[in-house]
Amino acid sequence: MQALQHIGAVKATMSSREIADICEARHNDVIVTIERLINEGVLRLGRNTARPYAPDGGGRPTMVYDLTKRDCLIVVSGYSAVLRAKIIDRWMELEAVAPVPGLPRSFAEALRLAADQQDVITAQAEQLAAAAPAVEFVERYADSTGTKGFRQVAKLLQANESQFREFLIEEKIMYRLGGELTPHSQHIDAGRFCVKAGTAPGNGHAYNAARFTPKGVTWVAGEWAKWQLKQRAGEVAHA
Fold first, then answer.
1. Which residue from 25, 20, 74, 17 is spatially nearest to 51, judged by alpha carbons?
2. Residues 160, 93 share a domain
3. What is the pLDDT of residues 7-20, one digit of tens each?
4. Which domain holds residue 73?
5. Nearest Cα to 137, choosing from 239, 215, 232?
6. Helix (H) or strand (E) holding 54
7. Do 136 and 211 belong to one domain?
8. Mean of per-residue pLDDT scores for the chain
9. How would you classify residue 198: left for phi > 0, otherwise alpha for psi between -120 and 50, otherwise beta?
């Protein structure tokens, strides 16, 4: 029987599976009661109330609800006095043992924390892998001290110009000014762009041409790769 969970070392919760175990009831029946009370607006559920659970012996994962003491007692309020007493006794037993903040309270929780940490490591590795092509781009122009325009960089990154323009604006790298893309000042200060002023031949109109420095191309290649990864993740989430 699993120990009580603690959210942010403040609120303790009891899972619907433990309620079912203590009351010797079917977990599905407990879930039906919880979801009915949710629909009636009786329970005060948080964002992380429901979570997937895979049985130790394999099988189809099910959803488990983690309930605060208040919500737990409301769920079992329709049960017999004997069963309600068992739940109350269990709460008193578990609350008597104060957990050490920040430390896992069970082997199962330690495994969950390790899995969460691994998810973070995996996500970071994916971002690095996505940004890896930037190394190839660097090798193509590392020996050059020249700057590059928007279309040159888009071609270098093998990027669709419309998508690359959308990325630059969305990520607040550049903005439109007089029909031209202009870098935000912090990126100029960081040495990623230079802005060359000039006069157009023929009409004499003054203009400012933004150019990516070699440092800027290196940086934007990595940011572009991460942006693409984020876009793909969003597409999968909405599939």
1. 17
2. no
3. 444 467 888 889 98
4. 5-105
5. 215
6. none
7. yes
8. 75
9. beta
